[in-house]
Amino acid sequence: MANTVPPELWERVVVVRWPELLDKVSAEEQATAATLGPVVCGLALEHRLQVATHPPLNSRRRNADGDWRPRNHALSQSRGAVHSHALPNLWQSMWEVWQELSTLEPPSDGRPLLTTEAGRVVFPASTADSPPTRTT
Q1: C-alpha to C-alpha distance for 55 and 79, rounded to whole angstroms
Q2: In the chain, what is the straight-line distance between the N-terminal and C-terminal CA atoms, in Å?
Q3: Total-model pTM
Q4: Rounded distance, CA 114 to CA 123, Å?
Q5: Which residue has the higher pLDDT, 117 or 91?
Q6: What is the pLDDT of residues 69-87, one digit of tens each?
Q7: H/E run at residue 121
Q8: For residue 72, how many other CB atoms are within 10 A of its CB?
Q9: Are 13 and 124 in contact (CB under 8 A)?
Q10: What is the distance between the alpha carbons of residues 78 and 87, in angstroms, rounded to a whole number?
């Protein structure tokens, strides 16, 4: 999920390689994903993730007058929301991977990145603490 908050403030950034999970779903669901295309599939999975996790930074939006109002992702009519239930098994696989990746602890050696077959986790605080890399 994208936010306008600087990544340096994030505890972790979870990246799920959802196209790698397509081989775990039925041929019918794979065909649905192919018809929707990668952009809409990504939006659909992102929508389901927002509904499942209720991220605080995405839970409200500004009105035209500048005031904040709550945002209910479940009522969205976005492209992702409209197609979010077309990929139930892909969503389930993606959700399981996201849950696994989102609970990983930063490496004890201070590396800012963990990579698995299903995705990766970046720990921005680790990169902020690291000295800058010099190139000559």
Answers
A1: 19
A2: 35
A3: 0.77
A4: 8
A5: 91
A6: 766 666 676 888 899 899 9
A7: strand 119-122
A8: 10
A9: yes
A10: 16
